[in-house]
Write a structure and sequence with these properties.
heterodimer; A: alpha+beta; Glutaredoxin; 4-stranded mixed beta sheet; 7 helices; B: alpha/beta; 5-stranded mixed beta sheet; 23 helices; globular
């Protein structure tokens, strides 16, 4: 068993509970465990992976291999709002790249980066299955369709406005 | 007494178009005006024409309201619900005549469709098992458990001519037979809901609109091959599908339709849901198995096929969501009924996700053998914004582009393959004159380069080289030798890659080279992109000077 640099907190209690349920299965699923952990922590830092490694008795190297294979898992924290712009085919042929470019300029960040105020992370995805509304983007779990560069910018503006209201 | 039944679409597209606010407004008004006894509201799965959401159908008038908002709802409640006069201006209008269509069934979008898989989608509340049972749900499961042997079930499925709807079109009955005959103390049924093709949302809509039909299909498959455990592998990008499947599973277990001693017989069948983590290659069956086992989703060599050695080395069948959704109707109506629809070698219907530059986007189900022209121009209503049709992309990154000259080809597995496309999972993306075909080919290659798992060289290196050449051409730096090199590389990647991802990834390049070679030549020789998509550095420089 390796030593993990863990600062005990309620998040680990929640993860411990999740893993306990998973371990009741004959073959506990590593990917399920990682999903639960990402839900709890928002991303998968090394100490969390180390913790899962000990709990499920799976080598850390293997877990790292799995985490880096799948797009869905993040090893870096995302901002409060994760913007995912769909670059699937239907969105692509209807100009999603222009939307991406507009938001990238508007937020002044590149794909994969987070704004200085830690409010927005800009990311891309391959198809949410909302092709009928192309081009689309998702902000956390909400889908916005029939976008134009201007419409996308005004949606971001709306998020900023709400954020200022709650803070002010 | 209920006088009006209102179906309101809560598919993913309508939800993102503001269905919730519309529904809340509707419920508030119904309460305010004391219409609770007269109007029954049901939230359904996807109705099809996603572009016009939020959607609502009012029975018995068959009025199909589109693009709803709170103000429109207020008027509909006043005029239609109270005074009995449908609000014509909010009804679907046909683009040809600009005439409001008063009844849903005569709208051209629906007229040419035949709904077997989507029969319940948009017509029942997917979160209520009683509604599913009300449409004959779980009757097929009861029939096979009490009246049929597993061999008879396999026989019926074989005779129906059903083929896998995930793309490859392997006969479903034969797959089941192999798994039935394989020796093993434990066997598995996997439902492949890893709908990774960009531009495809058929499985998503079935899981959201009629989840029980998937569960029933899996249980019947389990009985047929002798499995008592099933897994549904579904994309993490589809949170609503996950939620509705989980709910359906809970309800089915409570009713004794999934679990131990199903319908008081000796048959046990349990189902677990496994959520994917965003890897396109996991739609490949051996990669999917690796992913359920908790590994990196890397494909494995076949043979042994999963029917012999699948999940944890045990005999396993993997069927697509749509394939499984056909099963209960085949059992109930008989194989002859099913095989009466379709072409000689491809039976039944196919669900397509229609999107791109077409007027009516959305989910459609058509008898196999219908022409692409009928799907795009009759059901889809033609090209949007008065533009000219250029091509239709079928089958996602494994498929190809079909040009105008071949639009009358009947849609079936063999015909599409002969055109250099594939039936695929069912994404149909319409392209118009503003789309550059070289750019589209490059787009798909960028996708497959990104999604290649990297374990075999032809796919990892070959696709990257092909991408580089396409990139060169779109920047006006290509040479005529590049075309030859592209074709050679495509041949090698196709014939030497380990799995279907690599074996089919060159298709978008080959099919555009076949039907749109002129555009490649224009990029190379004239530094010209007729769609004005590609930007050539040299030309830009000239303008600046």
């Amino acid at each position: 068993m390796q030593k993990c640099d863990i600062k005990e907190n309620p998040q680990y209690d929640a993860l411990r509970l999740s893993l306990r349920i998973l371990k009741k299965e004959e073959k506990p699923s590593l990917i399920e465990a990682l999903h639960r952990a990402q839900e709890i922590f928002g991303y998968l830092p090394e100490e969390v992976l180390c913790f899962i490694s000990n709990e499920l008795k799976v080598p850390l190297s293997k877990i790292y291999g799995v985490v880096t294979f799948y797009h869905f898992f993040r090893t870096e924290p995302a901002a409060k709002y994760l913007i995912n712009i769909c670059l699937g085919t239907a969105c692509f042929v209807k100009g999603s790249e222009k939307v991406l470019k507009a938001l990238s300029e508007d937020l002044n960040i590149k794909v994969g980066e987070t704004t200085a105020d830690k409010l927005f992370t800009l990311s891309t995805a391959r198809c949410f299955g909302c092709c009928g509304l192309a081009p689309v983007m998702m902000i956390n779990k909400d889908v916005y369709g029939n976008l134009s560069p201007d419409k996308a910018k005004s949606i971001i503006e709306e998020y900023r406005r709400k954020e200022n209201q709650t803070n002010g | 007494m209920t006088i009006l039944t209102v179906l309101i679409c809560s598919g993913a597209a309508c939800l993102s178009s503001g269905e919730e606010a519309v529904k809340n407004k509707l419920m508030t008004l119904i309460n305010e005006k004391n219409l609770q006894d007269e109007v029954k509201v049901i939230e359904t799965g996807c109705m099809g024409p996603c572009q016009y959401g939020p959607l609502m159908i009012v029975y018995p008038d068959n009025s199909f309201y589109i693009s709803l908002n709170e103000d429109k709802i207020e008027k509909i409640v006043d005029e239609h619900f109270i005074k009995g006069r449908p609000v014509k201006e909010y009804l679907w209008e046909t683009p040809e005549t600009r005439k409001k269509v008063e009844e849903k069934k005569i709208i051209p979008f629906f007229e040419k469709q035949l709904k077997i898989v989507l029969g319940n989608c948009g017509n029942i509340d997917p979160e209520n098992i009683d509604e599913y049972i009300g449409t004959g749900g779980y009757e097929a499961l009861a029939k096979v458990l009490t009246e049929m042997t597993p061999e008879e079930v396999i026989d019926v499925v074989t005779k129906s001519g059903l083929r896998g709807r995930g793309g490859a079109g392997f006969p479903t009955g034969l797959k089941w037979k192999f798994a039935r005959e394989a020796k093993g103390d434990q066997k598995f049924v996997i439902c492949n809901g890893d709908e990774g093709d960009p531009g495809a949302f058929m499985d998503r809509s079935v899981c959201e609109g009629d989840p029980h039909t998937v569960l029933e299909g899996m249980a019947i498959a389990g009985y047929a091959i002798g499995a008592n455990k099933g897994y549904i592998y579904i994309r993490a990008e589809y949170p609503l599908s996950v939620k509705r499947l989980q709910l359906a599973l809970k309800q089915a277990k409570k009713y004794g339709l999934i679990g131990k001693k199903i319908l008081e017989t000796d048959f046990n069948f349990d189902i677990d849901i496994r959520i994917g983590a965003g890897a396109f290659v996991c739609g490949e069956e051996t990669a999917l198995i690796a992913s359920i086992e908790g590994e990196r989703g890397q494909p494995r060599p076949r043979p042994p096929f999963p029917a012999q050695k699948g999940l944890w080395g045990k005999p396993t069948i993997i069927n697509n969501v749509e394939t499984l959704s056909n099963i209960r109707k085949i059992i109930l109506n008989g194989p002859e009924w099913f095989s009466s629809v379709g072409t000689e070698k491809s039976k039944g219907t196919k669900v397509f996700a229609l999107s791109g530059k077409v007027i009516n986007t959305g989910l459609v189900e058509v008898p196999i053998g219908i022409s692409l022209r009928e799907i795009i121009f009759d059901i889809g209503g033609g090209i949007a914004n008065g533009k000219k049709f250029k091509a239709v992309q079928i089958g996602g990154p494994s498929g190809g582009c079909v040009s105008e000259q071949n639009l009358d080809t009947p849609v079936d597995y063999e015909s599409l393959t002969s055109l250099g496309a594939i039936m695929g999972s069912g994404g149909l993306i319409v392209l118009d004159e503003d789309n550059c075909m070289v750019d589209i080919a490059k787009f798909f290659l960028e996708f497959t380069v990104d999604e290649s798992c990297g374990q075999c060289i032809p796919c990892r290196v070959g696709l990257k080289q092909m991408y580089n050449i396409l990139d060169k051409i779109t920047k006006g730096k290509g040479t005529m030798e590049d075309i030859t090199r592209l074709e050679e590389l495509a041949k090698v990647v196709k014939s030497t890659s380990l799995c279907a991802l690599g074996q089919t990834a060159p298709n978008p390049v080959l099919s555009t080279l076949k039907y749109f070679r002129d555009e490649y030549y224009e990029h190379i020789k004239e530094k010209k992109c007729r769609a004005n998509v590609c930007k050539f550095d040299e030309i830009e420089e000239k303008v600046i000077k």
